[in-house]
Amino acid sequence: MTLRHMRIFVAVFQNGSVTKASKELHLAQPSVSLAIRELEDYYGVCLFERIGRTISPTDCGREFYRYAVHIDGMFDEMEKRIRDWDAIGTLRIGSSIAIGTHILPTLLVRLKNLYPELVVKTVVNSSRMVEQELADNLVDIGLIENVPELEGIVAEQFMDDELCAIAPVGHPLTREGQVQLAQLVQYPILMREKGSAGRDIMDAYFAMSQLRFSPAWESTSSQAIVRGVEKGLGVAILPYLLVRDSLERGEIARIPLHTPIWHGLNIVYHKSKYLTSNMKAFMAIAREYGEEQGERK
User: Fold this and answer.
1) In this structure, which topology does domain 160-263 adopt according to CATH?
2) How far apart are alpha carbons 185 and 193 in whole angstroms?
3) Start-end ranges of CATH 3.40.190.290 in the chain?
4) pTM score, two decimals?
5) Residue 208 host element (H or E)
6) Residue 213 burial class via C-beta count within 10 angstroms: exposed 0-12, middle 13-18, buried 19 and up
7) Model pLDDT for residues 190-236, shown as the tens digit of each residue
8) CATH code of domain 3-82
9) SS3 breakdown of the chain: % helix, strand, coil, rounded to 5?
């Protein structure tokens, strides 16, 4: 079993196809199929189930992938670090949408001031997708709005953010002293889609309060929800980061919740990841930013 075998396996796993993997690796399909068979013979296990022209990983194949993708990634990191010891290199950052929109640009400017020649590649996606990209070694470090669910992902909270209830300007709830969640569900509620960090948090809060409701509107776009609230379609609860500008411009109004809802923003990385000096510097910048925001509250 060689590193070549592992790289072929990873390509087949990620593409879900021998044909696509062979094109990506610029290898003949028989060579790719042979490498997979040699791996299975070497370990005496089945890594992929083959039904017709489709293949899907077995439980053993998924477990092998967890090791293979990080061994492959660590080898690449070793090659880069040893061959170009003095090179600054590349840092791949994944970020959730709220953090990527309102926090990440500031962090990147500060990082560039420290390392002007550093190549930074960023991907802004849902928190769950950032987790998966870390697990697949597609990004080096991430910033997400929830506690990670995938095995092997390490999290460190660097900042608190409040989930803010919003309504159209002049809405009756905005004139209340303190509003309970039970009052909120009496009105149409606009929410993010299931699986988003903010939706998961709010579903948990409503469940703890034993409140049942059906969202009047579900959207993958937080800004679409803000605009819907502005136009009077209902109320919503979104990260303060995402609604701050609209509140300050007077486009929407804040509903004063009886019990504030807070959630942590986290730095995340894979436990097998080698933390480079650039990664450590980025983490330090994020912590410093979080401390600054805490002092302003």
Assistant:
1) D-Maltodextrin-Binding Protein; domain 2 (3.40.190)
2) 17
3) 160-263
4) 0.69
5) helix 197-208
6) middle
7) 998 887 777 888 888 888 888 887 888 888 888 899 999 999 999 99
8) 1.10.10.10
9) 50, 20, 30
